[in-house]
Design goal:
The complex is a heterodimer of chains A (291) and B (223).
Chain A lengths: L2 H6 L4 E6 L8 H10 L5 E4 L11 H10 L4 E6 L5 H13 L4 E5 L20 H12 L16 E6 L5 H12 L4 E6 L3 H12 L8 E6 L5 H10 L7 H9 L3 H19 L2 E4 L7 H8 L4
Parallel strand pairs in A: 1-2, 1-8, 2-3, 3-4, 4-5, 5-6, 6-7, 7-8
Chain B lengths: L1 E5 L2 H7 L4 E7 L2 H4 L5 H13 L3 E8 L8 H7 L2 H4 L2 E5 L2 H10 L3 E4 L1 E10 L2 E7 L15 H4 L25 H11 L22 H7 L2 H8 L1
Parallel strand pairs in B: 2-3, 2-4, 4-5
Antiparallel strand pairs in B: 1-6, 6-7
The chains are: A alpha/beta (291), B alpha/beta (223).
């Protein structure tokens, strides 16, 4: 079943995230995809995440699609103007990449090419609108396309939102996002508040909410996330569990599986970000009773 | 105000190879920011002289970017004729305009950062990006295009931590926009869907308007 069909069904969705290589050797990426292929509904492919230069997500998704994987291509507004974004999207569709996850993208100063010109010609709301146009057979200037796209587009959010950020999230839905992927959730109470707000708004009817999950690797890792990643807050009790654990990696998997069990009752799916250690993903899902 | 800062002196020495230099300062923004007014021009003159350069003269023009008649500038500053390079202590705009007029090499002594101002004793940087379609009223008077590090027009990104921007840890522009709109009773503006900027508007046709009203000629004579 395609990802699009899955998000239209009542099935609990599981996705996971893989980074394209920093270089041309795709063997590692293919190995990662192989590790998770039986337990996920689609594989997200990141777009130069944290502004660190890597292989184009369109090329990576194309390679994976060719091998029969269902991918969700991340597309940021950071590096491409409206011409390049459209061009990339048309190419992606032609390579049988059918799902797009749109985001602003970390600023170049956060990455490994600090001197790069930040583009941000469009923001994520405008990019979603542009995708909607391509789906209808028109480019951003209103010219007809010879062959339109039919992307299933999604957007991202933090679970703790101020009023301006919530208004923006609503605009993303109105612009055509069919699913929302959240930043990693550790505090399910706060996430419940977020879901209450979502479920209380007519805008989000039919919109699938996929919660982010990061299995912690160590106490240091939890600390790093708290200090460096916006929108992530690992609570004290989890940090102390990681501190006391004999096997922090297993403890991290345990915490992730507990979170998934709770999230299953709250939202429509989970997105697992194991950051390079994909062999853990099937185990975590099994511990959570999902696969 | 155009915000500029002085280049490193050793960088200037690497750049300016000519021996005979005329220094031009600017009486507007550069003078206000103490990077290109009379005291800074005189200091530059002394430093360059002590490095063996022959300073054929100096002047602080009232507005380097609109110097009026170049013939008059040359008449009032015979030192320019004896120099083989101009060192311009103004914004990049001023240095570029002088490059159109002068027949010798023009070197910029300043690096230009942004269009801003000074407000309540604070330097307000990046107040405007000169996009050609000012819409600040839709954002409570705060320009999302220039104040947000990602120029996001429809709301904040997810990168701010405790209201601080991921880029420079300054307060997120969207926090300011929200506060202002709330104060003005216009929070509904947050719901507007803003289209991307139309950069073709920067090519706006201002020259035709100015020529029609004979303004360019008037400015030229006034200067």
């Amino acid at each position: 079943m395609s990802f699009r069909k899955k998000i239209s069904s009542r099935k609990f969705i599981v996705t996971a995230e893989i980074s394209p290589p920093k270089g041309t050797d795709v063997r590692g990426m293919l190995k990662d995809a192989e590790l998770i292929k039986d337990v996920v509904d689609a594989i997200n492919i990141t777009d130069n995440q944290r502004a660190v230069m890597r292989m184009s997500p369109m090329a990576a998704c194309g390679i994976l699609s060719h091998k029969g994987y269902e991918t969700i291509m991340h597309l940021t507004c950071r590096d491409r103007n409206r011409i390049a974004l459209q061009s990339e999207l048309l190419g992606a569709w032609a390579l049988e990449v059918h799902n797009i996850l749109v985001m602003s993208g970390d600023h170049p100063v956060k990455g490994d090419h600090e001197a790069a010109k930040p583009v941000y010609d469009l923001d994520s709301v405008q990019l979603l609108g542009m995708i909607d146009g391509l789906n209808q057979g028109f480019d951003f200037s209103g010219h007809s396309l010879h062959g339109e796209t039919d992307f299933c587009a999604g957007a991202v959010t933090n679970a703790e939102l101020n009023e301006a950020a919530f208004a923006k999230l609503e605009k993303k839905i109105k612009a055509g996002a069919r699913f929302i992927q959240t930043q990693a959730v550790f505090d399910t109470e706060k996430f419940t508040e977020f879901m209450d707000k979502i479920r209380g708004s007519d805008t989000f009817e039919e919109i699938k909410i996929i919660a982010g999950v990061i299995p912690l690797r160590s106490e240091k890792n939890a600390d790093f996330l708290n200090r460096n990643i916006a929108g992530i807050r690992v609570p004290e009790d989890m940090i102390s569990r990681m501190h006391k654990a004999k096997s922090p990696v297993f403890e991290g998997m345990e915490i992730a599986s507990e979170l998934i069990k709770e999230l299953r009752l709250l939202c429509d799916g989970v997105h697992i970000m194991t950051i390079g250690t994909h062999e853990k993903t099937p185990g975590i899902l099994e511990m959570a009773g999902i696969r | 105000m155009i915000i500029s800062k002085q280049k490193e002196f050793k960088e200037l020495l690497r750049m300016v190879k000519e021996p005979d230099i005329f220094i031009i300062g600017c009486g507007k923004c550069a003078a206000k920011l103490h990077v290109g007014g009379e005291p800074e021009v005189l200091e530059m003159k002394n430093r360059l002289s002590s490095e063996g350069k022959n300073i054929t003269g100096w002047a602080v023009l009232s507005t380097v970017c609109s110097p009026g008649s170049w013939k008059e500038v040359l008449g009032q500053n015979p030192g320019i004729g004896k120099a083989d390079a101009l060192l311009v202590m103004s914004c990049g705009c001023g240095a570029s305009v002088l490059s159109k007029l002068a027949e010798i090499e023009v070197y910029p002594a300043l690096d230009t950062e942004s269009l801003g101002g000074i407000c309540s004793e604070e330097l307000a940087k990046e107040q405007c990006r000169m996009c050609g379609e000012c819409e600040i009223w839709l954002y409570g008077g705060i320009c999302a295009h220039s104040q947000c590090a990602k120029s996001l027009l429809n709301g904040p990104c997810g990168g701010a931590v405790d209201g601080r921007c991921e880029v420079d840890e300054l307060p997120c522009a969207w926090e300011g926009i929200y506060d202002r709109l709330k104060k003005l009773g216009k929070l509904e503006y947050l719901e507007f869907v803003h289209e991307p900027k139309d950069y073709s508007k920067k090519r706006g046709g201002i020259e035709i308007e100015l020529q029609k009203k004979n303004i360019l000629k008037k400015i030229h004579c006034d200067c």
